[in-house]
Every structure is written in C-alpha cells, then in structure tokens.
C-alpha cells in the first residue's frame, strides 16, 4: 500500500481513542478479564480505519504509544504491530457501520464456561440483566452467544463468524472455546456495558452448573 492510497484519519480522534483504550485497558485488567498480554480492544475512527491495541502489550500498562491505526483489511497505518486477531475486529466493522468499538477479553468465567459447555451456543432467558444489551427490552426474551472452536487461523475463524452472522443474525457477542469473548457496541461505553453483562450472566450460568451437578 502506497502513501497516496492509504486511508486518512483524524489525528485528534486517534489520540482520543488511544487514551480511552488505555483507560479501559486498566479497568479490564483490574477486573481480571485481561491477564498479562492477552486480549485486544479497538475503536472505529471512520469507515476505513480503526484504532487497535498493538500485539503483545500488557493491558494494565497501556500507553497511547501502544495503540496503532489499521485499515479495514488489518494493515497498519501507524507505528506498531497489529494483534494477530485484528481480523476479528475488522470483520465486525466491515459488516455493520453502527459498530464503534470492539472488546475481546479472557476472563476466567468466560474461558472456563466456553471450554466445558457442550453445545455450539449458549442461550439465556429470564435474567433481568439481559436488558443491558442494546435493543433488549425484557427479561422474557432470549440472548444467545455462539461458541466457535479456537483457531489460530484468524482469517478462517473470521469467515466462520461472518457466515454464522449471515445465517443467524449478528447478536451481541460470541465466545471462542477456551479463549475468550468478543462483544461490540456503538462506542466503548456501550461495549463495556455489554461485556459487564456477559460476565455476570455467564457467571450465573457457571454457578447453576455447580449447583445442579450430581
């Protein structure tokens, strides 16, 4: 990609996004949802560019220099090395222009439950906290989180996610077995609200499994 055809982005918007990603990184690390250098976070800057955490950075110690800009094909537009999982972020941004932020975390609850849950999806009904998700207005509805096998081939995994969303709808989040969760929202605040709801809802499910175990 030459300099002449690189997509442009506003430097002030990038700096603001970088600072916010660092702030949420500290929060998520403090919650024990992003241990060590795991996880990755991003914010849409425009239709062609997003700000993304660089690969291999400790999420509790992020600085703005640890954030880079990438295009929607995952190619870097600023200094830094994109996460290996960049394609899972850009797949979401490409399919829905309303998505403004994506958070991927590795909390103990999500990693454990995704590993032991036998079905390819986890559906929940009857929990008041379901209303934390954008567009959900009642506990009587059902929220479903697909579960995909872990895969080091990110392009292949992103293709599976896209195919599932085309067939079953976009939903609010998905899990990767033994790995973590991806969720999204119109901005970081909404995205974090979704993530917090997921943590509690899956925590409820994990406790139910313990209670019901013979």
From TrEMBL:
Catalysed reactions, as listed in the record: 5-(methylsulfanyl)-D-ribulose 1-phosphate = 5-methylsulfanyl-2,3-dioxopentyl phosphate + H2O
Protein EC: 4.2.1.109
Keywords: Amino-acid biosynthesis, Lyase, Metal-binding, Methionine biosynthesis, Zinc
Pathway(s) where this gene product acts: Amino-acid biosynthesis; L-methionine biosynthesis via salvage pathway; L-methionine from S-methyl-5-thio-alpha-D-ribose 1-phosphate: step 2/6
Broad EC category: lyase
Record carries keyword Iron-sulfur: no
Annotated cofactor note: Binds 1 zinc ion per subunit.
Family: Belongs to the aldolase class II family. MtnB subfamily.
Functional description taken from the UniProt entry: Catalyzes the dehydration of methylthioribulose-1-phosphate (MTRu-1-P) into 2,3-diketo-5-methylthiopentyl-1-phosphate (DK-MTP-1-P).
PANTHER family (alphabetical): 3-OXO-TETRONATE 4-PHOSPHATE DECARBOXYLASE-RELATED, FUCULOSE PHOSPHATE ALDOLASE
HAMAP family per the UniProt record, alphabetical: Salvage_MtnB (MF_01677)
Name this protein carries in UniProt: Methylthioribulose-1-phosphate dehydratase
Source organism (scientific name): Thalassolituus maritimus
Gene that this polypeptide is encoded by: mtnB
């Amino acid at each position: 990609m030459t300099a002449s055809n690189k997509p442009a982005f506003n430097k002030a918007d990038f700096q603001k996004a970088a600072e916010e990603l660092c702030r949420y990184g500290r929060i998520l690390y403090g919650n024990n949802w992003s241990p060590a250098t795991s996880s990755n976070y991003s914010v849409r800057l425009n239709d062609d560019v997003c700000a993304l955490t660089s690969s291999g950075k400790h999420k509790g110690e992020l600085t703005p220099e640890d954030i880079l800009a990438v295009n929607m094909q995952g190619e870097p537009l600023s200094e830094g090395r994109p996460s290996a999982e960049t394609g899972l972020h850009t797949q979401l941004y490409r399919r829905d222009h309303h998505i403004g932020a994506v958070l991927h975390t590795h909390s103990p609850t999500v990693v454990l439950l995704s590993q032991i849950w036998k079905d390819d999806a986890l559906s929940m009904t009857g929990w008041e906290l379901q209303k934390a998700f954008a567009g959900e207005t009642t506990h009587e509805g059902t929220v479903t989180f697909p579960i995909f096998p872990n895969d080091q081939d990110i392009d292949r995994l992103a293709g599976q996610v896209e195919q599932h969303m085309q067939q079953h709808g976009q939903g609010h989040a998905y899990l990767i077995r033994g790995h973590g969760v991806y969720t999204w929202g119109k901005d970081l605040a909404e995205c974090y609200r979704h993530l917090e709801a997921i943590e509690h809802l899956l925590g409820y499910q994990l406790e139910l499994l313990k209670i019901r175990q013979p």
